[in-house]
Every structure is written in structure tokens, then in C-alpha cells.
Amino acid sequence: MPSPPPTAHDLRTLTGPRRAAALETLLSDLRSPDPVVRDERAYRRAKEWVPHLDAGELRMLGDRTAQHLAHPEVQARTFAPLVLARIAEAGDWRPEWWDAFARWYPAEQDLRGHDAALGWLHAAAHGADLLAALARGRREPPGMLAGTAVARLLAPTTHLFDAQEDDRIAHALVQILARPDITAADSERWAEPVVAAFRTGEPGPVPAWASNTMRTLRALYVLADRGFRDDEGLVRTVTHRPAVLRAVAGALGIVAPYAV
């Protein structure tokens, strides 16, 4: 029977080749098609280990995880943002990791929430979690973060969100819009592509991307209006509340002409 993977405490006792081998095993397990290995074990291990890695190890883990965003297997791609979020929270972030994520997130075609064999995939939600972590850490300009979330929403797809992805993207957006350095203009400007896309609507069935975007904006309006809880349980709100509410209501008014 194989020995159990080292815990966070055990990792700190490993040095040299044994420590490097443990990190290689972690990277391999984070690509595993077995949801128990990938999600319940490897990702949990990653969360425990990342705060105890040195700068070189964080850089290596981030470089290799960012490469997973171009992996041919969907589960490897969709768990990469979660690990990158933990690395960003630990204090490291690189422009090349952002570039890899920004290429992948709007382009990902497999938006299934859960698969019977692979377990949780959740590309849209996991990408939103990374955007939220970057917003909290002020790792990228808020306009760039919001624009990437919007690009994901507006990308053509036939998949209708069915696992609260809309809520997760709204939660990311509200954290971006709560950045103290965001301007009033940027608090509205992010919605301009949504307005333009909604204005192209024609009679007939509502496209999946449009429905996904509408539901995300409705969730965002509630969070922007009433506030949201941060990681410490404190209630926060967006920096320029009137501007955000005006932008969201203006976009939704195009597809809901009965709204006031």
C-alpha cells in the first residue's frame, strides 16, 4: 500500500530531492482524472502547502500550473486557476501567469459544472475565483479583471450555467468593483460590451451566453445594492455604488424593457 502524501507539517521536514519529488507528485495529482485524487486530496494538499513554500518553489508551482491552462485534458485546465489563486494569496504573481489565464478563460469550451466521472470541473466558477483573488490582492488593474470576466460571459457557448457559476462570477465582479482604486468611470465602463452585445438580440430563443450574462448581472445588482461579505465576514460594498447600479440596470433594461 502506498504511503499517504505528506501533510503541510511533513512538507516542512522534507528537503532536497524528497521535497522536489513531493511537489512533482502534487502537480501530477492536480491533473488527475480521478476526482478523489485531484479535488479531495491534491487540491486540499495544495492549499495546505502553498503558504509554506519558498519563493523559488512558488515560482515553479505557478509556472507549471499556468502551463496546465493549455493542457489537453479539461480537469487539468479547470483546476489550474484555483491553485494560481492560492499562489497569488501567498504573495506571488507573474505577468506571464495572467497572460496564460486571460487567453484560456474566455476561450474555454467545456463549461460543465460537474461530470459523473471527472467530478467537479467548473471552469467558469474556478476562473472567477482567481479573478476574485487577484482583485483582493490588487494584482491586476480592476478594468482588466472586469473585462476578462465580461469576455467569459459574452463568449459563444451552448452551455447554460447550472451550478451557480453566475453567482460566482457576480461575486468576483463585485469584489473587483469594490477595489478602492477603481474610478467611477471604470465602475460603468466594464458593462459597455454587455450593452453592445444585448443590443444585437433578435426575436427567438435566448442564446445560452445571453441567459448566463443576464443571470450574472441580476446577482451582481443584489450584491452591489445590499453589500457582500468578505473573507473575514465583514459586509462591504462597491466603491462607486450609484455608477455600478446604473451600469447593471442599464444593461438589463435592454433585455427587460418592462423594468423601470
Automatic annotation (TrEMBL):
Q: What is this protein called?
A: DUF2785 domain-containing protein
Q: Which domain of life is it from?
A: Bacteria
Origin organism lineage: Bacteria, Bacillati, Actinomycetota, Actinomycetes, Kitasatosporales
Q: Which Pfam families match?
A: DUF2785 (PF10978)
